[in-house]
Amino acid sequence: MTSSGLSGGALERVVAQVRAAGDGVVSTLGPDGGPQAAYLTLAVTASGELVFDAREASRKVANVRRDPRVAVVVGGPGGTTLQLEGVADVPVGVDRERCAVAYGSTFPQFAASLADPGIVVVRVQVRWARWGDYRTSPPVVEDLVGGAG
């Protein structure tokens, strides 16, 4: 099992779904505890950590620094969805570089912005994941990690 909480087939499914979609909605908790959502480009490391970039001054980053709990939804239009919950941080050092490489290689058009000191890389370590395929009747819904959520 990786630091993201994913292993085996669950890890493969999460990595494949995030790489295929390349975007999703990330929800953080605002100062009053209410949800704040943003539609973002998303990359994923080989170990299943979600990665996105953000302005240091953004509410996303302030929220993550105050309360690291996040929820993410990937997919939808094609009939499959991936719901994730986890713990986010702004990695530094070797972890930041590894996550920046994953993001920059997925989105080369944004790679140069990662050198801007006003831009940070945010990593989400997955603690719960559920995959759903709504192209069939009945739909197939499978908890990948973390049990019922």
Describe it.
It contains three helices and eight strands, in the order αββββαββαββ. With 149 residues, the protein is of the alpha+beta class. The longest helix has 14 residues, at 8-21. The radius of gyration is 15 Å and the shape is globular. The model has no long low-confidence stretch (mean pLDDT 91).
Give the class from helix and strand content and strand pairing. Answer: alpha+beta
**Radius of gyration, in angstroms, nearest whole number:** 15 Å
Mean of all residue-level pLDDT scores: 91
Largest β sheet strand count, sense and barrel closure: 8 strands, antiparallel
**Principal-axes shape call:** globular
Number of helices: 3
Secondary structure: number of strands? 8
SSE pattern, N- to C-terminal: HEEEEHEEHEE
Instruction: State the end-to-end CA separation.
Output: 19 Å
Summarize the structure.
This protein has helices at 8-21, 59-66, 93-106, and strands at 23-29, 35-41, 43-44, 50-55, 69-75, 80-89, 119-133, 140-145.
What are the defining features of this structure?
149 residues, alpha+beta, 8-stranded antiparallel β-sheet, 40% strand, globular
